[in-house]
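Repro case for the chain-ordering regression, as requested:
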Amino acid sequence: DGTNAAGDLSDGLNTFFLLFSGALVFLMQAGFAMLCAGSVRQKNVKNIMLKNLLDACGGAIGFYTIGYAFAYADNASDSKTFIGNKNFLLLSFDGSGGEWIGWFFQFAFAATAATIVAGTVAERCKMQAYLCYSVFLTGFVYPVVVHSIWSGDGWITAFRDDPWQGVGVVDFAGSGVVHMTGGATALVAAIILGPRKGRFYDEDGNPLETPVSFPAHSVALQILGTFILWFGWFGFNPGSALAIDNSVSAETAALCAVTTTLAAACGCVTSMFTDTMIEKSATGEVSYDLTAAMNGALGGLVAITAGCSVVTPWAACIIGIIGGWVYLGFSKFLIKMKIDDAVDAIPVHFANGMWGVLAVGFFADPDLMAIAGYNDFPGVFYGGSGELLLCNFVSIVWICAWVFFLMTPFFVILNVMGMFRVDPLEEEVGLDISHHRGPGYDMAGAKKEDVEELME
Amino acid sequence: DGTNAAGDLSDGLNTFFLLFSGALVFLMQAGFAMLCAGSVRQKNVKNIMLKNLLDACGGAIGFYTIGYAFAYADNASDSKTFIGNKNFLLLSFDGSGGEWIGWFFQFAFAATAATIVAGTVAERCKMQAYLCYSVFLTGFVYPVVVHSIWSGDGWITAFRDDPWQGVGVVDFAGSGVVHMTGGATALVAAIILGPRKGRFYDEDGNPLETPVSFPAHSVALQILGTFILWFGWFGFNPGSALAIDNSVSAETAALCAVTTTLAAACGCVTSMFTDTMIEKSATGEVSYDLTAAMNGALGGLVAITAGCSVVTPWAACIIGIIGGWVYLGFSKFLIKMKIDDAVDAIPVHFANGMWGVLAVGFFADPDLMAIAGYNDFPGVFYGGSGELLLCNFVSIVWICAWVFFLMTPFFVILNVMGMFRVDPLEEEVGLDISHHRGPGYDMAGAKKEDVEELME
Amino acid sequence: DGTNAAGDLSDGLNTFFLLFSGALVFLMQAGFAMLCAGSVRQKNVKNIMLKNLLDACGGAIGFYTIGYAFAYADNASDSKTFIGNKNFLLLSFDGSGGEWIGWFFQFAFAATAATIVAGTVAERCKMQAYLCYSVFLTGFVYPVVVHSIWSGDGWITAFRDDPWQGVGVVDFAGSGVVHMTGGATALVAAIILGPRKGRFYDEDGNPLETPVSFPAHSVALQILGTFILWFGWFGFNPGSALAIDNSVSAETAALCAVTTTLAAACGCVTSMFTDTMIEKSATGEVSYDLTAAMNGALGGLVAITAGCSVVTPWAACIIGIIGGWVYLGFSKFLIKMKIDDAVDAIPVHFANGMWGVLAVGFFADPDLMAIAGYNDFPGVFYGGSGELLLCNFVSIVWICAWVFFLMTPFFVILNVMGMFRVDPLEEEVGLDISHHRGPGYDMAGAKKEDVEELME
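-- result from build under test --
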C-alpha cells in the first residue's frame, strides 16, 4: 500500500542522495590532484599526483578496516565514549538502514581529510612518510575527531538528548572535523619538515631578504582543480543533510547549496581585490592574481562548511568575505614565520576551518538550527548568550590539541629516523626523476626533418 | 500517512533533482574555462581562466542581490510586467516551495549566459570592462529576458493562462534566453572591440589577403572542456523539467536526455565531415579538424536546448545536423566580415541559439508539447498554422533588439573611455604577463647537471 | 491518493537515477580521452582525442538507429532469440516505462565498449578504419552480446524464468559484456595492426633486445582521466541496479558503491607495490610507478564490475588485489608476445574483464544474489557446485569467440585493403600534423623583446 511504498521510496531516495553526494566528494580527489599538480614545479608533478591517488586508496582501505569502526560504532548503553569499537571491516553490516551508503559517504570525507596534507608537504616529503601518516590519519586520528562530534556517543556531539551546554558542537559538514583536522596535520608537518630548498634560505642556510616564490607549473590545472573542488562541495555540504526524503531535509540541503555558492563567490572576489589593492599600494601596478582568487573561493567554501545549513544567505556572504581575508592574512603570516606550504592548504583549510567553526557561534539562526536538526540555540548575533560559541570554540581547541599531540611526535620520529624528507639532491632534481622513473611530461613533438619530408 | 509522506518525498525528490541539475550546470563553468583556455594562445591563458572564475562569482553575487528579483518576482495581480521587483537579496524567501534550490538552479544558468562572452573577447579585453559587463549582464540584461519568457508575468511567456498567440514562446531550456543572450552580447562586443592584432590586418592596418589563424595552445584542454560541457548539458536540458516527482515530468526529462545526446552527436559528425569535404575540395587533402568536430557538437547542443522536450529523436537528429552547418556557415561568415571571435562562441551560441528557437516552430510535436506542460500547438511540420513559429520568431527579434539596444551604447562608452581594449603592447606580450604577474606555465624541468649528478 | 503518488514518484525516482548514472557513464568518455591523450606521445594527441569524441557520437547514432533494437527488443512469445529486431530508431517508443532513459543509459555503455579500443591502436591506426569498426562494434557486435546476457530473450541470460543451468550468466554491470567485448576487439586489432614503429623492432625489422617504452606525454592528463573514470564507475556499477524506488534496489546500489571503491583501492595499491618489488629486485632501486598505480585501480574497477552487487566487501578486496596482479601479468605477457597496446587497455579491460566474470563464480554470496535479483545460486567458495561458474565461464568463451570470429576477418580485410595502418612517414611525423592540420599544442609564450619593451 501507499505507506509501505513511501517507506521503500524513502530508502531509495536517501540512498541515491548519498550516492550522488559521496561521488561528488570523491571527485574532489581529482580536484585536489589537479590543484596540487598545477601548483608545484614541473619536476614534482608525478609525485604529488601519485600521493593524491594513493590517498583515495589508502583512505578506502583504512576507513574500511578500522576507521569507520572507530568513528561511528555506537554502544547500546547510550553513554559517551572516546572511540567506537565495533564493525571493523564492516562485518556486522546487514545492508539495512543505509549502512553501505553511509560508509561510502563517510569514506569520501575521510579521504578528503588525508589529501589536504599532500599539497602542503609537496616537493620534499618522502613517499614512505606520506603512506605512514595518511594511513594513521584516516585510520585513527580523524575517526576519533569524527566520533567526538558526529557520532551519537561523542563527548561534545550535538546529536544526543543531553548535548554539552545544551547544544553541542555545530559543525554541519566539517569545517572543523574534516578541514581543520587535515589542515592542522599539514601545519605540524610543514613546521617539522622545513621549507623547500631556496624558498626562505640560501644555499648556506642564511635567510633570504625576500622569500622566493616558486611559480606554479600549470595554472590551467589549478583552475580546473578549483572548479572541480567547488563542484564537489555541492556534494560535501548539501549531502551532509544525510537524507532528503522529507521537506525539512530538502530545505536544509537546498539552503546549503545557496550558502555554499555565495560564500565561495564572496571569498573569491574579496581575496582577489584585496590582494590587488595591497599589491597596488606596494608596487603601484594594478594586477589580478589567480592564486588569490582561487584560494579565496576555496577559503570561502571551507569557512561555510560548518554553518552552511544554519546561516542565512547574507551571513554566508559575510562569512565568505571574512574567509577571503583570513586566507590572505594567514598566508602572509606563514611566510613571515618561514613556514612553507607549497599549495597554501594551511590558510585555506586550517585557518578557514577555524573561522568557519567560530562563525557558527556568531551567525547561527535559531530557526534554521531547528530545521537542520539541532537544538534551536541562537548565535551571538541573534541574541545567544554564547553556549554555542563556547561549544564550537572548545571543538577548535580539542581538534588542535588532539592533532598536535599525536602528529608532532609522529613526524618528529619520522624525521629523526630519516624517513621524512628526501635527500637534498633528489629535491633539487625533483621527485619525478628520482622516485618515479622520469619526468611527468614529454612535450617533444615531431622531428623537424620528418615534417619536412612529409611536406615535400 | 502515505499521502503526507508522498508530499514530503516530492519535495525531497524535486529538490535533489534541481541540486543535481544545478551542480552539473555549474560544472559547465569548468567546461567553458577549459575550452576557452585551450583555444587561446599560451600568453593569455591566465587571463581567460580568471574571467571564467569571476563569472561564476559575479554571477552569484549579481543574481543574489538583484538578478533573481528582476527575473522571477511575480506580482499578485496576475498582470504582465516587464521586470520583477521583489525578493531582492532573497529576503522574503522562507525556504518553502523549493525557493532556495530554485535560486541555485537559476543562478547556474545566469552564470552560463555571462561566461559565453568571455571567450569571444579573449586576448584583448580589459579586466575592468569584463567585470562591468558581466555584472550588468547577469544583474539586469539577462534577468529581463528571463522574465519575459520564463516568468509567469512575462509578456511573451508560455506559462500563463492566456499566452500570446495562445501558446507563447517555447524555449524549454534556453537556446534563446541563455545562449542567444550571451551570444548576442558577444557579437556586439566583438564588433566594437575589433579583431586581435594580426588576425585580419597587418601592422599598418591594411587587410591581409588571408586571415591568420592563431593556433589553440592546448587541444587537450579544448576537448576536456567540450566533454565537460556536454556532461553539464545533461543538467541543463533535463533539469529544465524543474520537477521529477511524477511520471509526466520524468518522461519529459528522459526525452531531453535522448534528444540532447542525438543532436550533439549529429552536430559533431556533420560539422566535421562537411569541413573535411570543404577542405578537400580546396586543397585536395583529406584531414579531420577537431575544432569543427567539437564546435559542431556544441552547436548541436545549443540548437536542441529550446526544443529538447518537445521534439522526437529523429527531429533532434535533423536539428543537430543543421546545427552543424549553421556553426560552420556562421563561423565563415564572421571571418568574411572580419569579426574576430577567439573561440567561435558566436556561431555556437548566437547562431545556433537562433536556429534552436526557430526549429521549435517547425518540429514541435503537439503530444510532446502537452507532456512538457505547454499548450498542444503543433510545429509547422506537424500541420501547425504558424502561431508557435511566430511566437518563437518574435522572441528572437526581442532578444536581439534588447541586447543590441543596451549593449551597443554600453560597449561604445567603455571603448570611448579607453576602458575596453588593452594597450597594443600589452596585447602583444599577452595579458598574463602584463596583468597577472607572469605566464600561466612554467614547464622548466630539472637542471641537467643535477640529473647527471644524481645518476652518478 | 498515496498509492498513485507513490507510483508517480517511483517513475520519477528511477528516471532520475538512470539520468544520473548515464550522465556519469557518459563522462567516462572524458576520462578515456584524458587517459589516452596523456598516454600517447605529443604528436598524436589530437588524433586520439578526436577518436574519443567521435566514439561518443558514433555510439549515439549507431545505438539509436540499430544497436538498441538488436540488443533489447523482446519478442512476445518468450522464446530465446539470437538478436532483437524491432524498435529501430526507437520508433515504437511511447515514453512510458522508462524507455527514453533506458536508451540513454544503455547508449552510454555502448559508447564505453567502443572507446576502449581507441587507446590500444593509438598512434598508428587510420581514421577511416576507426570509424568503420566503431560503428560496426556499437551497431552490431556489442548489441548481440548484450542481447545474449542482459535481454530477457538471450540464450544465456539470467533474466528469464528458465535460465540456463538454473541461474544464467551473472555479469551485473558488464565486466564481460562491456569490457571484454571492447578489450577483445582491442586485442584482435593490436595483433593485426602490429606494433608502433620502433617499439619492438628496429628500422630493419630486427627485434630489439629490450622493447622501447614511449613515454606518456602528460601524466597530469593520465591521472585526471583515471579519477574521472573512477568517478564515472559510480554511475556504471550502482546504476546497473536500474531502479532505486525500493529498499532492495537501494541496498544493491549502495553495496555496489562500496565494493567498487574497495576493489579499485586494492587493485591500485597491489599493482603499484608489486611493481615496485619487481623493479627493486631487478634494479636495486625503489621507485613508485604511476602507470602501475592507475592501471591497477582501473583493473580493479573492471574486475569488480561483474560481481559488484553479489560479493561482500572483503571479497571485493580480494578481487581487486588479484585484479592488480592480473593487470601487471597480462601487461608483461603482451610485451613478451610483442603485441603493442599504447595505453594498456587490453590488460585492464580484457584480462580483468575475464577475471571479473570468473570471480563471480567463486565469490557470489547467495543472499546477495537474491537481493540483486538473481536466483540464489552460491559461488564455489560458498558451497556452490559450479553451475554459476560454468555459466560465467561459458559467457567468456562466447564473448571471445563472437568477437574474434567477427573482428578478425574485419580487420584483416581492412589491412589488406590498406585502410588500417597509416603510412610509416605519417606515423613518424605523428598523426596530428599529417591528418589534423598541425600539432596539438603551441606552448610558445610572449616574445622576449616585447616583454622587455613592456618592462621598460
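Ordering looks correct now. DSSP finds 15 helices and no strands in chain B.
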